[in-house]
Amino acid sequence: MFGGSGLMRHQGCVIFVPFSAPGDEVSLKITQEKKNFKIAQIEKILHPSPDRVSPPCPHFESCGGCQLQHLSYEAQLKAKRSFVAEALGKEIEIVPAPSPWHYRSHLRFNLRKEGKGFHYGFIATDNASLIEIQECPLFSPETSLFSSLKTLSLIHI
């Protein structure tokens, strides 16, 4: 996996497949062709990976914040170990969160000016659009951040 996308090679070309899981058998459609790689989207999952799960987030596949929710937690940890090992050039221990959900205490929102105010949200998978969300299954429920941010979005600067 690379950044949440599965990798495959076809006729010597690397193809990135977002939202695929290791072991999936899929039917693909090439959506972008670059000089050294291609990007494909899954048209149909023929045989799902044993590591594939149903993502709990209603914004999955449109929000760019979580690319691994379609993997079991064990498969997510394995992918994260691989990402870190590749980035640092060495293996390190990845400590699992006490729960696979509601473990984040920090989120980074983006603001977009509209009229005299601002809208907040996460950057979408297209790296341009803003996804306004009402909940995030990774964020700790002990905070009322989402309800308090509704008032912040009405502030005029």
Please provide a written account of the structure.
- By secondary structure, the chain is of the alpha+beta class.
- Among the domains are: 1-49, OB fold (Dihydrolipoamide Acetyltransferase, E2P) (Beta Barrel); 110-152, no CATH class.
- It is built from two helices and seven strands; from the N terminus they run ββββαβββα.
- Strands 1-2-4-3 form a four-stranded mixed sheet, with no helix packed on it. Strands 5-6-7 form a three-stranded antiparallel sheet, with no helix packed on it.
- A hairpin with a 2-residue loop joins β5 and β6 (117-123).
- The longest helix has 16 residues, at 73-88.
- The relative contact order is 0.13.
Unreliable stretches? 150-157
Main beta sheet: strand number and arrangement?
Answer: 4 strands, mixed
- CATH class call of the domain at 1-49: Mainly Beta
List SSEs in N-to-C order: EEEEHEEEH
Q: Strand order, biggest sheet?
A: 1-2-4-3
Spatial gap, N to C terminus: 42 Å
| Radius of gyration based on Cα positions | 18 Å
Shape: globular
CATH topology of the domain at 1-49: OB fold (Dihydrolipoamide Acetyltransferase, E2P)
Structural class: alpha+beta
Mean of all residue-level pLDDT scores: 82
Number of helices: 2
Number of strands: 7
Q: In the CATH hierarchy, what is the architecture of the domain at 1-49 at level 2?
A: Beta Barrel
Work out the helicity level: 10-25%
CATH superfamily of the domain at 1-49, called what?
A: Nucleic acid-binding proteins
Strand content: 25-35%
